[in-house]
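Lab channel / #folding
Pinned by the channel admin:
"Please post every new chain as: sequence first, then the structure tokens as a reply. Keep commentary short and put observations after the output so the thread stays searchable."

First post following the new format, from NK:
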Amino acid sequence: KSLKGNPELQKKFLTASHEGMNAAQKKIIEFIQSDEPLTDSHQVLFTGIADAMAWQLIGQQLCHARRFYKGHPPLNFKESNFESVVYCAEEMARQEPGSISIISDLTSFVQIGDLLKMDASGRTTVAEVKEGKKNHEILEFMNFFIETPCSHALNHFAQQHGESGVKQLGRMFRQAERMNHVTEVMRKGNSIDPDTKQVIHIPEKPVFIDNWDEELNEILKDCDTKGWGWEIVDDCLFIGAYSKDT
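Reply from TO:
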């Protein structure tokens, strides 16, 4: 309760949390960009860490997570070129102290936008990273066209950039619509899905699913003292952890 009524304390808490998240993401990126082989175990571990951070940013709300997921197959980090996204995430963290920009490709479910960002005040945004002069020109035209729809301008654009430019413009429009939809759902609770045309309504009161955080924390305490710990939840779920040389 004291945290909710104290904006300054909230900001300090988020800044400290985001500092840890930035450090974790940096370690993941350094490993991916190194010459070390990226095994399936690494991929599962890194995705789990990124998912956990993204889960915090969306308030642990499954209804929001579903808006981000589009059923895309998992990405092979080594085969993807995400240097520009990494640069953008690091630059955002540098320019806005206390913020975190989680790289979407590191997660298993954030498939709208390249970055899921939260500033030190708790405001969440989705960002798409585009590189290259041509993409910049198309983006400028798209922003102009959204403000001032003009068939003559669109005609001129098609003549200037050709079929590939028109297709890229269409892709950017769809990406922008999806990002706006996700942002609108998270902030207002109501929006029309641009892909399905369904009206999405999110209940105002948050719905928290059951978790086993308390049991896990007890196990981790055991790890600190004797190097291992385990627990059985509801006679069916086994949770175990080990550390040090165990």
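NK: Helices lie at 7-32, 40-57, 62-68, 83-95, 133-147, 151-188, 213-226.
TO: also worth noting, Strands lie at 100-103, 115-118, 124-127, 190-192, 199-201, 228-233, 237-242.
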